[in-house]
Amino acid sequence: MLLTLTTTHRPATDLGYLLHKHPDRVQEFAQSFGTATVFYPEADEARCTAALVLEIDPVRLARAFGRNAPDFTLAQYVNDRPYAASSLLATALADVFSTARSGRCAARQDLADSAIPLQIAVPVVPCRGGPEMARRIFEPLGWQVEADPIPLDPAFPDWGPSRYLALTLTGTLRLSDALSQLHILLPALDESKHYWQGPDEIDKLFRSGEGWLATHPDRELITRRYLGRRGGLMREGLARLAEVGDETPEALEPSAEEETALPAARRPRLNEQRQEAVVAALLASGAISVIDLGCGPGALLSQLVKQPQFRRVAGTDVSVRSLQIAARRLHVETMSERQSDKLQLFQSALTYEDARFAGFDAAVVMEVIEHVDPSRHAAVERVVFGTARPGTVVVTTPNREYNALYDGLTGLRHADHRFEWDRAQFREWAEGVGAAYGYSVAYQGIGDVDPGLGTPTQMAVFTRE
């Protein structure tokens, strides 16, 4: 993969300061999927060009992904990744030019804060939607776009164009803005993500999109395509975008195009499997009233309110914004009186006693405990198991051991996680809580099972004795 970045600002060699890469050197940067190289084909006072070349190791990439690969079978080995700009190039660009993307340059800060003439060339980029889509995405940001379709085979012109473009962008922008836009829009052109997408994918989108995404006329389209049309991520991303852009609630719903783009039979995503497992455990408990402690934007609540067995459902979260998104997702304003009587949303924190937590047959603490500092676990345990004391408590949390199967994942799965337990640590915690507060505990794994590493999510069902 190749991307070149050229400026005619004088002196043009100041580009080396802005990129924090010296024009006289060839520098290599190791990536989990290959090697990124930066060099300058030309560098003088009038014109300077920096080239980023990403060499993919297809076999290493396929071995690293294993069964978690976005593609399947032979497509893991026979594909366009070594040649066509994609999400992998965007990932390498964000890593190699991270300081430039932040807009920091101690040697030339005034220049880093200024718009300069830029030309960005990507010889081969996959683009679903052709030249019109490229222009639709880049032109509102001030770029002059040249998007030339690449023939499927020059020897057979009747076959028509391929899905690839030779893309050239020309404009006058801050370098940091240009790099941030490329980080988001290269994957949006392709619509495919070639690595594991974690919960922080939405945070990446809004960090790189700060200052331009919320005002882009096709911001919803970009959000959907950047997130690979992954249902859960896409809905949360659109909800975040709606909060920033003050969109209507309908913006949270998938479009007809998205619905038809989904295959008729597909493998459930982990968050869907997690919700299904939690709902099944609650139904099996016989509970008729349920509270979701740390409900977030209401994904689980939307499933709970559909169950006739649950006559009373409540959701609580420390984040007001999450509760607002949950209310919009659940269409609280247009609910019937009967539905409205069944549902309650309120703000509260799990580390403090709240009389509203009590009186429920069952409580859910789904993907919440890992966001709480271990020093405050005793307070959460006392509030949930000691004071609220429902008959059933369902707790889910990531299994740290399974992280080894996620290629490109370093550290914890989410930037806000305070820790992640392995299976033995989770059982030790659960057994201790059960013994202290009079609950028996049953365990279940959620997601694909690895013989040595278990499942990505672990669940404990506490039953009051």
UniProtKB/TrEMBL annotation:
Keywords: Magnesium, Metal-binding, Methyltransferase, RNA-binding, RNA-mediated gene silencing, S-adenosyl-L-methionine, Transferase. CDD domains: AdoMet_MTases. Its EC number is 2.1.1.386. It comes from Nostocoides australiense Ben110. Residues 245-269 are annotated as: Disordered. Residues 245-260 have a biased composition (Acidic residues). This is Small RNA 2'-O-methyltransferase. Its cofactor is Mg(2+). One of its GO terms (molecular function) is RNA binding. Coiled coil: none annotated. Gene3D superfamilies: Hen1, N-terminal domain, Vaccinia Virus protein VP39.
